Amino acid sequence: SQYSAVDTNPLSMYIMQPIWNKIIKIVPLWIAPNLLTFSGFVMILVNYFLISFYDWDYTASGTSPGLVPTWVWLFSAFTTFCAYALDSIDGKHARRTQSSTPLGELFDHGLDSWATSIFVLSFFSVCSRDNGKTGVSVYTMYIYLSIVLFNFMCSHWEKYNTGVLFLPWGYDISQVVLIAAYLLTGAVGVEVWQKPFLFGYYITDALVILLIG
């Protein structure tokens, strides 16, 4: 069946899509769309394992602020953007080269289902685990991850029943926020996450509200 998706997010429609339309023009026609999909997923994995190397138990940012090198956070921003871009242009490239297939859609969304978890798990290293003063508890991490995965599941369940994938606004917003958060961490250090941001609230509190919304 023909792939059908609806994206009404203003961020996607007016900012990101024009960027992807420019990027897609420089992708050689001989490159397989699935290669773009897989390359984006590999970048997510590389980022995850790199952060895991420096922060395997999610405590580095809270107890040893300088343990994760600055370049790791900047590299995280780079890989997240690349993965975001590749995931956004693989379908365009498939239609452009007239090579769209149900298998390609399954491959794309199958890797997305893994990436959804990995994006969140990688980001927890920025917030750090609860150390009694700041950070996020393991239980709260689990709840955050569950919300994200539930959102992903509902979107695809809706697609299964209606034949149309209504893309959640949260996807583009979350990717931009992730990139910005990594850049912020690389620029000023993880300490920014450990200090009250506004009226005694932390940046992580604002992200929770955004996530639930």
From TrEMBL:
<dbReference type="GO" id="GO:0006646">
    <property type="term" value="P:phosphatidylethanolamine biosynthetic process"/>
</dbReference>
<feature type="transmembrane region" description="Helical">
    <location>
        <begin position="136"/>
        <end position="154"/>
    </location>
</feature>
<feature type="transmembrane region" description="Helical">
    <location>
        <begin position="26"/>
        <end position="50"/>
    </location>
</feature>
<dbReference type="Pfam" id="PF01066">
    <property type="entry name" value="CDP-OH_P_transf"/>
</dbReference>
<comment type="pathway">
    <text>Lipid metabolism.</text>
</comment>
<dbReference type="GO" id="GO:0004307">
    <property type="term" value="F:ethanolaminephosphotransferase activity"/>
</dbReference>
<keyword id="KW-0460">Magnesium</keyword>
<dbReference type="InterPro" id="IPR014472">
    <property type="entry name" value="CHOPT"/>
</dbReference>
<keyword id="KW-0443">Lipid metabolism</keyword>
<dbReference type="GO" id="GO:0046872">
    <property type="term" value="F:metal ion binding"/>
</dbReference>
<comment type="similarity">
    <text>Belongs to the CDP-alcohol phosphatidyltransferase class-I family.</text>
</comment>
<keyword id="KW-0444">Lipid biosynthesis</keyword>
<comment type="pathway">
    <text>Phospholipid metabolism; phosphatidylethanolamine biosynthesis; phosphatidylethanolamine from ethanolamine: step 3/3.</text>
</comment>
<comment type="function">
    <text>Ethanolaminephosphotransferase that catalyzes the transfer of phosphoethanolamine (PE) from CDP-ethanolamine to lipid acceptors, the final step in the synthesis of PE via the 'Kennedy' pathway. PE is the second most abundant phospholipid of membranes in mammals and is involved in various membrane-related cellular processes. The enzyme is critical for the synthesis of several PE species and also catalyzes the synthesis of plasmanyl-PE, a lipid required for proper myelination and neurodevelopment, from 1-alkyl-2-acylglycerol.</text>
</comment>
<dbReference type="InterPro" id="IPR048254">
    <property type="entry name" value="CDP_ALCOHOL_P_TRANSF_CS"/>
</dbReference>
<dbReference type="GO" id="GO:0005794">
    <property type="term" value="C:Golgi apparatus"/>
</dbReference>
<keyword id="KW-0256">Endoplasmic reticulum</keyword>
<dbReference type="GO" id="GO:0005789">
    <property type="term" value="C:endoplasmic reticulum membrane"/>
</dbReference>
<keyword id="KW-0464">Manganese</keyword>
<keyword id="KW-0472">Membrane</keyword>
<keyword id="KW-1133">Transmembrane helix</keyword>
<keyword id="KW-0594">Phospholipid biosynthesis</keyword>
<keyword id="KW-1208">Phospholipid metabolism</keyword>
<keyword id="KW-0812">Transmembrane</keyword>
<keyword id="KW-0007">Acetylation</keyword>
<feature type="transmembrane region" description="Helical">
    <location>
        <begin position="166"/>
        <end position="184"/>
    </location>
</feature>
<feature type="transmembrane region" description="Helical">
    <location>
        <begin position="70"/>
        <end position="86"/>
    </location>
</feature>
<dbReference type="InterPro" id="IPR000462">
    <property type="entry name" value="CDP-OH_P_trans"/>
</dbReference>
<keyword id="KW-0808">Transferase</keyword>
<dbReference type="InterPro" id="IPR043130">
    <property type="entry name" value="CDP-OH_PTrfase_TM_dom"/>
</dbReference>
<protein>
    <recommendedName>
        <fullName>Ethanolaminephosphotransferase 1</fullName>
        <ecNumber>2.7.8.1</ecNumber>
    </recommendedName>
</protein>
<keyword id="KW-0479">Metal-binding</keyword>
